[in-house]
Amino acid sequence: MSDGLGGRLHPCGPVIDAGAASRALESVREAAASDGWSDALEAAWPALEPVVAASPYLAGLMRRWPDRLAAILRDAPEAGLVDLLTRTVGLSGGADDVRAPLRRLKGELHLLTALADLGEVWTLDQVTDALSRFADASAASALRAVAHDQRERGKLVSPADDPRGPVPGLFGLAMGKHGANELNYSSDIDISLFWEPDVLVPALAEGVEPQRFLDRLAQAFAQLMQERTGDGYVFRVDLRLRPDPSSTPPVVAVPMALDYYEGVGQNWERAAFIKARPAIGDLIEGADFLKALRPFVWRRSLDYQAILDIQSIKRQIHVHKTGEGLEAAGANLKLGRGGIREIEFYAQTQQLILGGRDPSLRSPRTVDALAALADKGHVPAEVAAELTTAYERLRALEHRVQMLDDEQTHVLPADPARRVAVASLSGHGDLADFDAEVETLLVGVNRRYGDLFEGEEQLSSEFGSLVFTGVENDPETLATLARMGFSDPAAVSDAIRSWHHGRIPATRSARGRELFTRLAPRLLEAAARTGAADAAFRRFSVFFAGLSAGVQVQALFLNQPELFERIVGVMAFAPRLARTLGRYPAALDSMLDARFETELGVDTGLFDQMEREAAEAGDFEGAMNAVRRLHREQMFRIGMQTLSGRIGPQAAGRGFTNLANAAMRTLSAAALAETERLGGAMTGAVAVIALGKAGSGEMTAGSDLDLMTVYDAPPEAVSEKKGWAADVFYVRFTQRLISALSAHTGEGGLYDVDMRLRPSGSKGPVSVRLSGFDAYYGQEAATWEFMALTRARVVWASDPSFGAATTKAIEVALRRPRPGIDVAAEVRAMRDLMARERRPDGFWDLKLAPGGLVDAEFVGQFRQLQAAAAGGALTVSTLSQLARDMPLREAWKVQQGLAQLLACAFDDKADVEAEPETFRRRLAQAAGELDFESLVHRLHTLRGAARGAFETALPATGDGESTDAR
Predict the structure, then answer these.
(1) Less CB within 10 Å around the terminal CB: N or C of the chain?
(2) Does this model's pTM top 0.90?
(3) Contact of 442 with 336, CB cutoff 8 Å
(4) Contact, 701 vs 904, CB < 8 A?
(5) Using one digit for the tens of pLDDT, what is the confidence trace for 853-865?
(6) CB neighbours (10 Å) of residue 927?
């Protein structure tokens, strides 16, 4: 007995409940008395009692298998382990034959290692080595058993004793702590399964499809290991440490795996292979595979960017050097701040950088790696010693947490009663002292970890860690994302990790992935700052996935963080602009133009550029596409300037109008040239007239074009080639112009074009002779048509003198007396009809709401008609038209500014109340208010005053007769 484990055990700590411990082992005492080993039990009782009192799981193992407890106490632990492993390897038969024995052997191993650990008989290395050796043995037996079943079914034809393993060509790599022989007490095992086609296929019966066979075999293997029965389970098995596990089968062919790692393998995967070793199956093929991967894992030369990307593995973890917020209760000993992962990441990142040229730094074991780094002078000896001690202490604590209930957890219980149990297994009788010691330990590791990247770029966030390595979502990162405002942190993390896998063109290259590692935390923080993190991230995802390549764009974002912040802000509350970037990522190029921040309309050569590129395009369609490309970029530019507040609403209106002017001028000339190409030259002239918002210079991002064309030509004139009469020629010109402005090509569209404001509306020809224009407005036009004409403006003419004549004709039409017409009554009647037929859609219908834009514009056009009749000055500007009506002028100015912002942000009507606070605050700022509530109050006030001014300008009468307008 003196050499046996029972005689070498020491009590691990105080007994937290002696009565409960005694009651728990009553049945064990009965068995000991019956089988004659009571003396051994009583001799070991002082060491067993604190264990039984603290760990329900270990107490249960002792009660279930008292005979195994007796053997464990009797034998030396080293001999007991050898015997246990021998019995495990010796199992034979199929899955049903080994299922129960494997689970009983696992329970025996757990009892043996726990007692040897808690009783201070084995070191941490001995404990983890025993657990890892049993994982190897049990996994090998499980694979052998499921292969036996396939052989029995006639699908596997290789001999059972084939030296290449149960399934030749199939091998499993032990990864992570299992691979480094550092397995923890209740760990799962990470096994990556691969197969070599040239070796495996001959081992299968004819007609058996290899991939399907292997996938089912892997499933059976995992189920045999992890299925819970009345005897428990063996190990939970994780097969995901393989190439891109979400899109690959559970067993990956070697050629495919090598292509993946050489093409898009990530640095965290390189780090994972530091610990990899062949563990089950065809160990020869496993060794050859790892040899082939050696250049991927251990690069002899690394450029600066590659080194930064490796270091990013550790920089993604948030460091608090003050120790603030580090508490023992609920601390994650593995993944949390100051935890095991921080020590492992530090060692592995140094290994990846330095191990390519120095094989002595390639140890899979963390403690050995730290020692090797210290020996070579890469880590101060005192730091290596401190981290080694901390690592061993944290691993011991991790084991004791798992021993309570055999749970795969790394979290120190928040419940004081359960934490007292961990403290007891760790030798502490005072919970406060235990908590203080744990907190000191975590703070020390976190501080050392922080020292490692002093002065380096942070890849975590002020909200916490942002770790996207591995095959599953990091819990600390999910908590960080939740704090940042993401409603589905797991989906965001999945997306980021899939981009790291190179699943989109922007991250398909190594350089693209290196840049994305740095960009990802900035993206998430920028999205969080918008106040609409979900929308910003979702729309950025569409844009990012649409990039044909990502190196230049990501480098731009990293070098110009303010620009990137603005882009992400747009994604949050401007789906119109986000959609533009998503469909046409090249629109981003406009932000690289030195003219981007300049108000559109300032002479920067942009409009000359549009005309030049259209002329150089070579044909009509090419001109259309050239204009669309430049137009799209500049629409994006104005939208960005407007939403960011760099230009005001009036400047935005001028910008959108200037851009429309340029497009209309360029495409009018192109349409005329195309018409002449088809029909021949025509002796005559044509002018394009803009009305509505285009005419008044008050366009928004969503404005269409209200147009008409007028022409003049000698009565007998015909085109030189086809002999088209003037009316045919200019109708065809107008049709081509409409197509040029409205048709959707591969480069998108420009504007919707409405020609219904022309003389006779949709009943008349699309282009009218100037004399016909004069006659129509002199004899037939209704008051509403004159109202529309108050905003008419010639935007292009084939002959400047004809353009001037057309402008004069518009003025003449407006000033021509209209005896017997009560203009005020007719304007008011039209507004009342509109109010009946088109009711406002809620408070944010800026156009139709009483006191809204339409009320103001009706009065403005009425004032213009009054001025025209009286010989006063004419203007197309609504603000100028409302010079006498200040309440309407102010209401229109504020609401037009809000309409500009809403049009820049949305394609359709927005639910303003539901938009993010950031956007609502921007609306308030545009109106000169401090907050959204103040904006709503001001709108109520402005509209009330504006509607009153409307009633004064255009009063209604009960009998339908108008009174004199004032």
Answers:
(1) C
(2) no
(3) yes
(4) yes
(5) 999 999 999 999 9
(6) 19
